[in-house]
Amino acid sequence: SYAEVCENVRDFTVAESESGVFLGCGALHLYGPHLAEVRSIVVKPEAKGQGAGGRILRALLEEADDHGVPSVCLFTRIPDFFFHFGFRITMDRAALPDKIYKDCQNCPRLHACDEVAMVRGPIPRVAVLGPSRVQDSDLVPIQIPFSGERH
Ligand SMILES: CC(C)(COP(=O)(O)OP(=O)(O)OC[C@H]1O[C@@H](n2cnc3c(N)ncnc32)[C@H](O)[C@@H]1OP(=O)(O)O)[C@@H](O)C(=O)NCCC(=O)NCCS
User: Fold this and answer.
1) Which member of 18, 51, 144, 148 has the greatest number of CB atoms within 10 A?
2) What is the CATH number of domain 8-130?
């Protein structure tokens, strides 16, 4: 929806040709310091197979690294593309409760999902959405970058 576009547009990274023509885009959604998700990665049909998708994905993974987020997940119908970048399939979707509570709960395909869940890095031990199944002591401390004087 338009509201979702407004909410999420800052998550997007764009790939352009040397002359500034749009080639494709992808988004990194941060659930918290424990988990991020690669979403909506797409390259224009005429630009496929020339490296733009890989460039976008690497930029999103660097962004997760810059934020110190160790685990990146995604749901996809083309796992082979993501194998190239260190993602592996996880058979247990319940291991990603944040993703389930954010998107799957309201998805018409909840019980007929044809996407594969993948993760790069460790399976998170904590979740921030849905009923909490973890001890507070397992929560990752949030590190907020702070450059000014603390008051
Ligand atoms: C998937 C997609 C983003 C890939 O973009 P791209 O620019 O064509 O990919 P690249 O040229 O950067 O390819 C990078 C590597 O992945 C491989 N690859 C690309 N598409 C692949 C696919 N569908 N399956 C398996 N491997 C694939 C390439 O061979 C290349 O491998 P190499 O580094 O060994 O040469 C693009 O095909 C696309 O927009 N698809 C439609 C939208 C879609 O399905 N998005 C995924 C939603 S989860």
Assistant:
1) 51
2) 3.40.630.30
104 contact partners, CB below 8 Å, separation of at least 6: 93, 110, 113
Q: Which residues are near ligand 1 (CB < 6 Å)? A: 41-43, 48-54, 76, 78, 80-81, 84
Cβ atoms 116, 90 nearer than 8 A: no
pLDDT of residue 130: 80
Mean pLDDT computed over 106-114: 91
What is the DSSP annotation of 62-122? HHHHHTT---EEEEES-HHHHHTTT-EE-S-GGG-HHHHHHTGGG-TTTTS--PEEEEESP
Domain ranges of the chain: 8-130
By most ligand atoms within 8 Å of CB, the mutation choice from 14, 46, 77, 78 for ligand 1 is 78
CA-wise closest residue to 71 among 50, 53, 91, 98: 98
pLDDT above 50 (res 150): no
Average pLDDT of the residues of the chain? 90
The Cα–Cα gap between 128 and 124 comes to: 11
